[in-house]
Amino acid sequence: MFISRNSAKPFTIPGGVTGFLYPSSPRGDQTIAAVTQDGVYPAHGYSVNDVATETIYCIEGSMTIEVNGATFPLTPGDCFMIFPGTKYRVTGTGRSIDFITPAWEKNTNRIVPV
Known about the structure:
The chain is mainly beta. Helix content is 0%, strand content 59%.
């Protein structure tokens, strides 16, 4: 299945995150986002996806993922899988490709306080 960048929707998230969200697969089993980050996501608290596994593949720069009080550094070529229901935060400056399985839905992703 070919998906042109022209069909991707740009997004901006507080905390220094921008990118492109590509259309989900026809079966709804995956969404891909091209992400550029310069700051902290989320800007306050932690992000939680109640349904999807999010796999972050670092392609440029460096990022740190905080999960359950532990931190994990990412540099180009590294990836990190975040399983459903896991609170996480990403800090750094770089670019990543994020694979979201099953497809991303706004109502299953939330921000929780620190």
